[in-house]
C-alpha cells in the first residue's frame, strides 16, 4: 500500500496531462531530499481524492487536453466526486474513478474517466478538482466499476 501511495503521489505530479504540460520538470532524477525542497510545486493524492468533478456541459468545443485551470468556472456543473486515481502497472496515471449520479449516495455509480477527458483544477492552495468534457448523461452511460472490477 505504501508503494501504491508513493507511486500515486509521483504520478499525480508527473502523470496528469494538465500538470505535466504546465510544468516540464523531469521528476525521475529528483532524490528524496530534493523533493522536500519542492513542496510548493507538488500535489499529494490526498489533496485530489474526495474533490469534486465538474462538467463544462455543452461547451465541448472549448475543450483542450492539458489545459490547467486555476479556478472553478461559474458555468460548470458539479456532477460527482473523485474517488480514486487510476494508474497503469508501469506507473502512469491513466484516469480517475468518479462517483456520479444518484442523490444522497442512492443510485450513484463509480465510473473511470480517462486522462484525455479530465483537466486538473486548483480550487485553492491545498485542494483540487477535475473538470471533464463529458456531460452527465455520457458519464452515467459509462460502465460501472466497483471493487470486484480489479480482481
Treating each run of at least 4 consecutive H or I residues as one helix, how many helices? Answer: 4
What is the percent of helical residues?
10-25%
Q: What share of the residues does DSSP label as strand, in percent?
A: 25-35%
Q: What value does the Rg take, in angstroms? A: 15 Å
Structural class: alpha+beta
- Span from first to last CA? 16 Å
Strand order of the largest sheet: 4-3-2-1-6-5
The chain-level mean pLDDT equals 76
Runs in which pLDDT lies below 50 for 5 or more consecutive residues are 1-23
Number of strands: 6
Biggest sheet overview: 6 strands, mixed
Q: What is the string of helix and strand elements?
A: HHHEEEEEEH
Overall 3D form: globular
Structure report:
By secondary structure, the chain is an alpha+beta fold. It is built from four helices and six strands; from the N terminus they run H-H-H-E-E-E-E-E-E-H. A six-stranded mixed β-sheet has the order 4-3-2-1-6-5. Strand 3 and strand 4 form a beta hairpin. It is globular and about 45 Å long. 25% of the residues are buried. The N terminus is likely disordered.
Provide tags for this entry:
disordered N terminus; 151 residues; single chain; 26% strand
Amino acid at each position: 500500500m505504501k508503494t501504491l501511495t508513493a507511486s500515486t503521489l509521483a504520478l499525480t505530479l508527473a502523470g496528469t496531462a494538465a500538470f505535466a504540460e504546465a510544468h516540464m520538470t523531469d521528476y525521475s532524477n529528483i532524490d528524496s531530499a530534493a523533493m522536500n525542497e519542492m513542496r510548493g510545486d507538488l500535489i499529494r493524492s490526498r489533496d485530489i481524492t474526495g474533490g469534486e468533478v465538474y462538467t463544462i456541459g455543452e461547451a465541448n468545443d472549448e475543450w483542450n487536453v492539458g489545459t490547467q485551470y486555476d479556478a472553478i468556472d461559474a458555468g460548470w456543473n458539479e456532477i460527482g466526486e473523485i474517488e480514486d486515481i487510476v494508474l497503469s502497472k508501469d506507473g502512469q496515471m491513466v484516469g480517475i474513478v468518479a462517483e456520479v449520479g444518484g442523490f444522497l449516495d442512492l443510485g450513484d455509480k463509480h465510473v473511470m474517466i480517462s486522462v484525455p477527458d479530465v483537466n486538473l483544477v486548483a480550487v485553492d492552495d491545498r485542494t483540487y478538482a477535475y473538470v471533464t468534457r463529458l456531460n452527465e448523461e455520457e458519464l452515467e452511460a459509462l460502465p460501472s466499476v466497483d471493487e470486484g472490477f480489479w480482481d
